[in-house]
Amino acid sequence: QVQLVESGGGLVQPGGSLRLSCVTSGDTFSSAGMSWLRQGPGKGLEWIAAISAGSSRTNYADSVKARFTISRDNPKNTLYLDMSSLKPEDTAEYYCATGCTVISGIPNCRTRGPGTQVTVSS
């Protein structure tokens, strides 16, 4: 079974930038669509971005559109999330995931990593 491990979280000031990475195990990464999710304090799990296997298609939640960029490096089995113009409301645990469907705004994913914490605060 594929394993996902996120890194790159931390404390950043409002307006700052951060890059999250997700390294995957196994040999199926290059053929799998990937997503980023997040869960803020006291909030439900939120899907925020997705990318197709060959990077030809990306989609974003309105809450992060034009501020976050999802990308991938298939030879390195790595997924990225570049975040800019960060706001305090972006504070959350961020997860990479695969095999996701979103029903009534709730993501349901086959595999998800343990997460990395992002805190946006001055």
How would you characterize this protein structure?
By secondary structure, the chain is mainly β. Helix content is 0%, strand content 54%. Strands 2, 4, 5, 6, 9, 10 and 11 form a 7-stranded mixed beta sheet that branches. It is globular, with a radius of gyration of 13 Å. The mean pLDDT is 95.
Order of helices and strands: EEEEEEEEEEE
Overall pLDDT score: 95
- Regions with pLDDT < 50 over 5+ consecutive residues? none
Overall 3D shape? globular
- How many helical stretches? 0
Count all strands and give the number.
11
Brief summary of the model shown:
The protein has strands spanning 4-7, 10-12, 18-24, 34-39, 45-51, 58-60, 68-73, 78-83, 92-103, 106-112, 116-120. The protein has 122 residues and is mainly β.
List its traits.
mainly beta, seven-stranded mixed sheet, four-stranded antiparallel sheet
Question: How would you summarize the topology of this molecule?
Answer:
Elements: E1 4-7, E2 10-12, E3 18-24, E4 34-39, E5 45-51, E6 58-60, E7 68-73, E8 78-83, E9 92-103, E10 106-112, E11 116-120
Parallel strand pairs: 2-11
Antiparallel strand pairs: 1-3, 3-8, 4-5, 4-9, 5-6, 7-8, 9-10, 9-11
